[in-house]
Write a structure and sequence with these properties.
By secondary structure, the chain is of the alpha/beta class. It contains 11 helices and 7 strands.
Length: 196
């Protein structure tokens, strides 16, 4: 088993924080679409520091300096807890003796803190984190690195991710995949593959 982190093991959404900063939904959506979109945040997943990334954005949108800074200083308010169905699946796979690993687009600055959010992360034998490697899903190189790091061929692994693009990238290289869209569907899908 190879697990993504955000919105697979733990729930993460910038809106969880920015609802507090921009109570008006239209104002909030405009900010997240224009000032702090996910493609801007991706630079931190590739290894850039939050300080560097936010400074660049503040220079571009000085009128939003406080809200942009919150992306760094209030980062943990974007999380709303672990996903129980995934935690249960990880425990079931562990009980069945299935080796488990992590493969996440995640900043090197937030990796340890994220892994402290659920005991399920303790079941992972090794992790490939984009912010440490300078390469991201769905780029083939990060899946190939995971194969080398985990000592397994793609066809020996089931990869679970909430991103359709990341799932497609893994499938193209020969991984078994599960596109995580409904927590209730996870257990039945893994049981159907004989994982527990």
């Amino acid at each position: 088993m190879v697990w993504d982190f955000g919105n697979v093991i733990v729930r993460w959404s910038p809106a969880t924080l920015y609802k507090k900063i921009f109570p008006d939904p239209l104002e909030r959506e405009a900010f997240l679409a224009r000032v702090c979109p996910l493609d801007w945040h991706a630079a931190t997943d590739r290894g850039r520091t939050f300080t560097e990334n936010c400074a660049e954005r503040i220079a571009r949108y000085p009128e939003h300096a406080e809200a942009i800074t919150a992306w760094r200083t209030r980062w943990w308010e974007m999380f709303s807890g672990p996903i129980p169905e995934t935690e249960a699946a990880i425990e079931a796979a562990h009980a069945a003796g299935v080796p488990q690993f992590g493969l996440s687009n995640i900043s090197h600055e937030t990796l340890a803190g994220t892994m402290a959010l659920s005991p399920a992360f303790g079941r992972l034998q090794a992790v490939v984190a984009s912010g440490l490697e300078g390469v991201m899903k769905p780029e083939p190189a990060i899946y190939q690195l995971a194969c080398e790091r985990f000592g397994l061929a793609p066809e020996e692994m089931m990869f679970v991710d909430d991103s359709a693009a990341n799932v497609a990238g893994a499938r193209a290289l020969g991984f078994h995949v599960h596109h995580f869209t409904d927590p209730a569907a996870l257990g039945p899908a893994l049981r159907a593959h004989g994982l527990f």
